[in-house]
Each structure stands twice: as structure tokens, then as C-alpha cells.
Amino acid sequence: MKDEFERRVHGGFKIASKHLLTVSLLTALMVLTTANIPEAISKPNTTIMIDGNPSDWVGIPRIAVDPSGDEDSDYDLTECYVTNDGSNLYFMIKVSGTIQYSPQGDPFQYAVLLDTDQNKLTGVTEIPEGETLDIGFDYVIAGPFPHALVSAYLCNIIRLQVPYSEYFVGGSIASFSGGILEFSCPLSVLDYPTAIDMVFMSRQPWTEFAPDQTGSTHDYVTYNVAPPLIKADGDGSDWIGSPL
Amino acid sequence: MQLTDPEGDAPNGDDEDIINCRVTNNGETLYLRMDIKGDGTETQFPVMLDTDTNVATGLTDLDGTPLGIGADYMVLWEDAIELKPCILTAPPIDNLLFINTISGNVSGSIVEIAIPLAWIGNPDKIDIVFIASLTGSTDFAGPMRYQVHRPRPVGGVVMSTDKLEILTPYLALAGLVIAISAVIVVKRRR
After folding, report:
1. What is the ipTM of this complex?
2. How far is B128 from chain A (nearest CA, A)?
């Protein structure tokens, strides 16, 4: 009787131990499989070649993610990236399909709205389609479109003010390949902001946004600009102490 | 590095009289500065860059005035645009290759420009000529040879700020310890 009891207990313990072993091994295997040992990454703020090749974005975290499949694939924003060096702000937009361009420029296919003073009161809050945003955007960069004079694709950089007025402040080379679009914007054109609230859009009239416009009060992302060594703004004071 | 240009040598007056030019970089961006005797706000200030320091390649004159270098890149100012964005281009001058818009501004007597070094081929040295307007009859400063400073890496490893990413190796270690413990327990029971 006692032996039978011990045998049963021992047997039950053995089975429990085997289960524990299996679960533990599976857990360890799963964790090891997904383990991402921190490794050296490229500088988070770096110069990007505007060539449609995303390789120089390695190590730069995406700033916005949007679910795949909520728009026609060519306009279906999936990931957006921003970085800067001492001269420019760089953008990369990914779509699940293929980047499209407008032969005439307008309507634009893709755009990023920039609230460079992070003040909703000083910029435009409503896009022409009636969508009200949580930022007051001061600039919009939109494109790409072919430009005959420069034999390249450009994005327009447009300044907006309240009461509503807009004027062209510059053109920036845009490059795209497959589902990747790259473009840049000189920091001096934006008056060297320290942080920018932004919303990415596609398909004018704009139907796709990153982040999605959910009706909350924070449907935008914020990029903190790495301060340049020198601001090319015509104020020479920051040259003091710079290596000559 | 800086270059001093004589005062009063500009044929078109003080607003085109370059008196001092400075260059610096941080390994990634090339910064250029020109100091003007007068007010530079209404003037364009092109800069010529010979990035292979080879006079045999690139633009060698402006309207017949020799530059003393073979300019492979040119910084120009688009005067048709209100905010005067600065553009980086490459010769030939009658069929310019537009490379991109870059940061630059003129305020009073100071002109500043910032150029990504990668966009001009990451040169080790550059011959530079500063010019007071896009014509052969103006003030020229240079050429000056600028050795590009390459900051040494400070070492270390850039770590993620994602807590899960930091904890993952420790979770894996804990999982292994549990697995080994389970193996030992099973063996002992046998």
C-alpha cells in the first residue's frame, strides 16, 4: 500500500518534472530565439544620401508606424523615419506597395506636415479635405514630381501661415525605389527648430495618415532635432570656440 | 581655418567686399562663413569647391576670371525664391547639375553655409574659392586649401533604450537556469 502510494507520488512527480522541463526548455528556446543582444548601431543622427536606398538608415529608429492594409498598397504608409545632421532634416517613408509620383506635381502623392514651433495656434490645423489635426503645421513638404530643369524628382517645401497663406520656399531632391521614398529639407529653411511635431500623409485628397487620425488629442509624432555644431543662419556667434 | 582678404579690393563696393572667410567641420558637415565689409543681404555669394584638388578637373574660371582651382561643386543662391535657399550644384556652369538644397543664410555682414560632406564625396582636403557675386568682376577670396578634420571615434557601444531589449539577454539566462535546474531535478528523482 505504502509502496503503491510512493510509486504513484513518485510517478506524478516525474511527470510534473518532465512537463516543467519541457516548458522551461521551450521558454529558454523561445527567449533565445528572440534575444536581441544590444550591438553597436550606426549614429542616430547622420547624413543620408537621397538615393532611394535605405541602407544608411540602419540604426535609426522609425518615428511612426501605421498598420499595413488600411489603404491601397501604393499609398499604404507602413513606416516613417526622420533624422538630421548639421545641415538637413532627412525623411524616409515606406509604403507596402510602390511609390507613385505626380507628373504635374499637384496633386501630391505623399507629404509630411511640420509644426516647427510646436504651437497649434500659430499654424494651420485643418487640411483642405476638412480633417482637423492636433498640430498647427507651419511647413509642408510634398511630392515627388519630375522637374524638367533639374532633371530629377523634387519635393516642394511650402511655408504656411495663419491667416491662411502659403508660399514656396524651396525644392528638395526626392528619390524613390520600390516602396521607399527619401527626401530632405535644409534646417536653415525651417529656422533651426529644436523639436518638430509632425504628421505623414498620402494620396491627395489625403486619406492615409501616420500616425492614424483617431480623434484623440495626440495624433502626431515629435522629432527632437539634434543641435548642429553651427547654425547656418547668418548669426556668426556660434563660431566662437569651433575648431578652425 | 580662416583666410583674410584685403579690405577695399572689391570693384563693386563694400557690399561685395569679402574681408574674412572661415571653414570648419565636424566630420559630417562642412561649415563655411564669409564676413562682408558692408551689407550682404542683397548679394549672392557663390563658393567654389575643388574636392579632388585637381585643377585639371572641374570649372576653372568664372566669366573668364581664373579661379585657380578646378571646381567640382558650386554653392549658389536661388535669387528667384524669397527665402534665398542655398543650392549645391556641379559644373558645367551652362548645364548645372542640381545636387540638392542645403542650409545657408545671409544676415547683415555674415554669410553662412552648411554642406553635408557625404554629398560632396567625403573629401580629405578641399580647395575653396569664395566669391562675392556670380560674375567675373567682383571680389574673390582664395583659393584656400582646407584639410577636412575627421574626429576620432570616442569608442563604446550605442545601447538601445528599449527596456525589453535590455532585459532580453537576462530573461534568456534565467530561462536557461530554469531549464538546467529542471534537468537536475529530473535526474535526481530518477
Report:
1. 0.78
2. 15
CB A207 within 8 A of CB A128: no
Say how many domains are in chain B: 2
Tens digit of pLDDT for each residue in B110-167?
Answer: 999 999 999 999 999 999 999 998 888 899 998 999 999 887 766 666 666 677 777 8
User: E strands within B65-137?
Assistant: 65-71, 73-77, 86-90, 97-107, 110-116, 125-131
Co-location of B45 and B139 in the same domain: yes
Residue B132 and residue B76 share a domain: yes
Cα gap A181→A185, rounded to integer Å: 14
User: Is B12 within 8 Å of chain A by CB?
Assistant: no
The pTM (predicted TM-score) of the whole model is 0.80
Q: Where are the domains of chain A?
A: 1-37, 54-224
Instruction: Provide the residue range defining the domain that includes B177.
Output: 160-190
Residues 133-172 of chain B whose Cβ lies under 8 A from any Cβ of chain A: 149, 157-160, 165-166, 168-169, 171-172
Mean of pLDDT values over B47-73:
94
Distance CA A45, CA A110 (A): 23
With residue A18 as reference, give the H or E element that holds it.
helix A2-34
Where would I find the beta strands (DSSP E) of chain A? 64-65, 77-84, 88-95, 110-115, 124-126, 132-137, 139-147, 152-161, 165-177, 180-186, 195-202, 208-210, 221-224
Asked whether residue B141 falls in the same domain as residue B168, the answer is no
Interface size between A and B, measured as CB pairs under 8 A: 186
Same domain, B80 and B168: no
DSSP state of A51: S
- Same domain assignment for residues B124 and B172: no
Instruction: Report, at the CATH architecture level, how domain A54-224 is classified.
Output: Sandwich (2.60)
